[in-house]
Each structure stands twice: as structure tokens, then as C-alpha cells.
Design goal:
The protein is α/β, with parallel strands linked by helices. 23% of the residues lie in helices and 28% in strands. Strands 3-2-1-7-18 form a five-stranded parallel beta sheet. A five-stranded parallel beta sheet has the order 9-16-10-11-12, with helices on one face. The longest helix is centred in the last third of the chain and has 16 residues. 44% of the residues are buried. The mean pLDDT is 97.
Length: 442
């Protein structure tokens, strides 16, 4: 059995390792157009902001590791097309040489591409994106230039907020733009996002929300960002608007979701029974929505790669769905969420209620302490939990995993009211904020 994997980052790596480690009858061929693999892009801002010493440890494996397991891995190789009827992948090396790979099963792990609106001046130098390791190198090189003083970040999602922090830590004047009224609007309701905005502003980042970039100005290099509300001097633009699935190879053959992602079943199989799709190029099942959706996260990529590989190898393994759990830490302020915010639920025509609570992490007599705020979102009729958000300067991240499981299992808000949560002053309050939030629900 020969499986060809197109794409050798998180999803493709997880699939390859699963096949190589568990199914000795599998011949695995990996194809990727990049020079490197396994780059943890979530660490780019830490490296650019010099919160870690270097980028070397952001790679967790390499080509030789797969060759040692018996895989054929071809880097710097472009897949030009796939003949799905004849099961042939047509490839070209960096030197221009063409070759073909036939397959029994094909895994598409082609990931996503940055959204790049075609604006006047978008071809100027000094306009960057953040996706690949090379993108991070490029941004780091420019931020290291003492002549780069003003940085404009377009998009206040996770990547935009993180790179804005990084640029500020490097002593730059930073402006953060987004059409939404707050940062992180896709993940957090305003009660949380507005606290993050206060945090950003307190650290000197200039916020421009409800503002859309319309053009870039300059001669050869970008010199200004033009929006629907003004014009701003800049030496560097970092675009972090979002991502779309990279579906170029299969969009004319495979059934796709409304945003172009390949539709897959619970085994990661596409509409072609010999083709699987994993990671950011594929749909995923949301347990909060109880419907197919699109959530581009590295954790989802790894899970889907494992699922596809086991099913190809002969072990039936069903996907159990995801909640889209995520988190962010900016200038020491931590926010975590899972499932749906109130805004996201309403956008999906769900009738929901929510309960909020705010308290200290530990009893007031403890010297080390901080406020914690929590929101639990639940369906109006069924009362099942569909989302949760938490924030604090404390590390409250592990709490969100309980809510992730609650959403997966369909737990109701009432079930949490008398949940057995231990108390010890070192850790929490006798009346835990999770319990208090649940008790405060309608």
C-alpha cells in the first residue's frame, strides 16, 4: 500500500508518523515545496519579540527523521497537478526536473494561505505576511533594522495581536488595525476583548478598530497605510487578516465547503474514496455547533492527521469533533476560550444565554493573587454548554479544558452547579468562580 502525502507540516507529519510507526506494510511518500518542515508558527512572535533566544527549537523534527523510518521525503518539490482518475501526482523539483508519483491513497495536507487583498500599492516592498518560517525571518530582519520605526499591523486576531506585541517589545511604534470594533472578535465577546484592548493600549500600542485598510502608499517601499478614516506613516506593514484553505489541487474534483475547504467525513475521507484531507485545508466537526465548520488550528491538524492515517492503515478510527479551544498571552494578560462566544453563537442562529462571574483566584488573605473573569455560554432551551471564556494575569488555562470536555459531552450548565471542585488557598477560593458562575445562571 502506497500513501502519498502532499504537505509536510503538522497535519502531514502526524499522518506520516502514524503510518510509519504502526503500519509496516505502508510505503509513505511525502512531498512539500518548502525547504523545512515542522515549524511551530505560534512561536514566531515570541522569537521576533525576543521572548525566546532563537528560532531553532521551533522545529520539532526534520527530513532525516522520516527517512530513518523508511519514508521517501522530497522537499522543495512543487505538486503541479493530480490526476485523480489515474491516481498520479505530477511533481517538479526546484531544479525544474519533472517526475510522477502514483498512489493507492492520497492525503492532502496542503494547509492554508494568508488572505491577501489586492489593494493599491500592495506590490510595494515592506509589506509582509506571517505564515512560513521564511515569513518570520523576513519580518524579524525588517524589525531589526533601526530605520524601521513605525509598524502597521493589519488584522487584530491572534497573530496580529501577538506580532503587535512583539514589535512593541522591539521598541517600535505600533499601530493595530481591524474592521471589527475590538481585537480578537472572532473568539471573545467584548467583555473580554475590551480588557485586552486596554492592555494593548497601556503598553503603547495605538489601536485603530472599525477601520479598513484601503491602500498603501510609497515609491518602491511602503511609506504609509491609507484607511477609510485616515492616512498613517509606516515603515513596515504586517498583514494578519486571516487564512483560507489551500485547495488549488483538488477544488475541481472534490466536494468543498462554502469557504473552499475540502469536505471530509469522520474518517477524514473526501468525496473521492481514495483521497483524504487533513489540517487547514479540510473541514472539521464542531461539537458546539453540532455541524461541519472550518477551524484552522495546529492542534486540529495533528488530530486529523492521526485519524486519516489510522483509517488508511486499516484501523477504523472516528473523529470525535472539536471545540476550537485556544488561548493567548499578551504582556502577561492571559485569555482562553473554547466553543462559541455569544456573538459567534448568534451569528450561527443559535439562541443562547450566558452567565458571568468575576472574583479573585485565591482567598483575599493570599499575597499572590489576581482577578479572574469567566463567561459560560449555554443554549437557551437545552441548557447545554456551548462555550466558555476566561481571563486573568494568573495562568487559568487548564480550566478551559474542562469546558472543552463539557461541550464535547453535551453537559448542561446545571450539571456544573454542584461540581466537585476542591479548595485549597494556594490554588483557589472555597466558592470557586466556575461554581459561582454556574449558580448564577438563569
Amino acid at each position: 500500500m502506497k500513501t502519498v502525502i502532499i504537505g509536510a507540516n503538522h497535519a502531514g507529519i502526524a499522518a506520516a508518523n502514524t503510518l510509519l510507526d504502526n503500519y509496516p506494510d505502508q510505503k509513505v511518500v511525502m512531498l512539500d515545496q518548502n525547504t523545512n518542515l515542522s515549524y511551530l508558527g505560534c512561536g514566531t512572535a515570541l522569537w521576533v519579540g525576543r521572548q525566546i533566544d532563537s528560532y531553532e527549537n521551533l522545529f520539532y523534527t526534520d527530513k532525516s527523521a522520516f527517512e530513518a523510518k523508511g519514508a521517501v521525503i522530497r522537499m522543495e518539490t512543487t505538486v503541479e497537478k493530480v490526476d485523480f482518475e489515474k491516481k498520479i501526482v505530477f511533481c517538479r523539483t526546484k531544479d525544474g526536473a519533472s517526475f510522477e508519483e502514483n498512489y493507492d491513497k492520497l492525503i492532502l495536507a496542503t494547509g492554508s494561505l494568508p488572505i491577501a487583498p489586492t489593494l493599491p500599492g500592495s506590490d510595494l516592498k515592506g509589506i509582509s505576511f506571517l505564515k512560513l518560517f521564511q515569513d518570520g525571518q523576513n519580518v524579524d530582519r525588517q524589525i531589526s533594522d533601526p530605520n524601521v520605526k513605525d509598524v502597521a499591523v493589519i488584522g487584530a486576531g491572534y497573530i496580529g495581536v501577538e506580532i503587535a506585541e512583539a514589535a512593541k517589545r522591539r521598541g517600535k511604534n505600533v499601530r493595530l488595525f481591524d474592521v471589527a470594533p475590538t481585537s480578537l472578535a472572532s473568539y471573545y465577546d467584548p467583555w473580554f476583548a475590551e480588557d485586552m484592548d486596554k492592555n494593548l493600549a497601556a503598553h503603547g500600542i495605538e489601536l485603530h478598530y472599525g477601520e479598513r485598510a484601503t491602500a498603501y502608499k510609497g515609491t518602491e517601499h511602503v511609506e504609509a497605510v491609507v484607511t477609510d478614516k485616515g492616512e498613517y506613516k509606516t515603515d513596515l506593514v504586517i498583514n494578519a487578516i486571516g487564512f483560507l484553505p489551500n485547495n488549488a489541487l483538488g477544488k475541481d474534483h472534490l466536494e468543498c465547503f462554502r469557504n473552499g475547504a475540502y469536505k471530509v467525513d469522520k474518517h477524514q475521507k473526501t468525496s473521492d474514496p481514495d483521497v483524504y484531507a487533513v489540517g487547514d485545508c479540510a473541514t472539521i466537526y464542531s461539537n458546539a455547533l453540532r455541524a461541519e465548520t472550518y477551524i484552522a488550528l495546529a492542534t486540529n491538524a495533528v488530530r486529523t492527521g492521526i485519524i486519516a492515517a489510522h483509517n488508511i492503515g486499516g484501523t477504523t478510527l472516528d473523529a470525535i469533533g472539536v471545540q476550537g479551544s485556544n488561548g493567548i498571552s499578551i504582556f502577561g494578560y492571559n485569555m482562553v476560550s473554547t466553543g462559541l462566544s455569544v456573538a459567534a453563537a448568534q451569528k450561527n442562529n443559535m439562541s443562547v444565554e450566558y452567565t458571568d462571574y468575576e472574583d479573585l483566584q485565591r482567598p483575599g488573605f493570599m499575597k499572590e493573587n489576581a482577578k479572574v473573569k469567566i463567561r459560560i455560554v449555554y443554549e437557551s432551551d437545552s441548557r447545554r454548554i456551548v462555550g466558555a471564556q476566561m481571563a486573568s494575569t494568573e495562568d487559568i488555562s487548564m480550566g478551559i479544558h474542562m469546558f472543552s470536555l463539557a461541550i464535547e459531552e453535551g453537559v448542561t450548565i446545571d450539571k456544573l452547579k454542584l461540581l466537585d471542585i476542591f479548595f485549597l488557598p494556594h490554588f483557589n477560593q472555597p466558592y470557586n468562580y466556575i461554581t459561582m458562575a454556574a449558580l448564577s445562571a438563569k
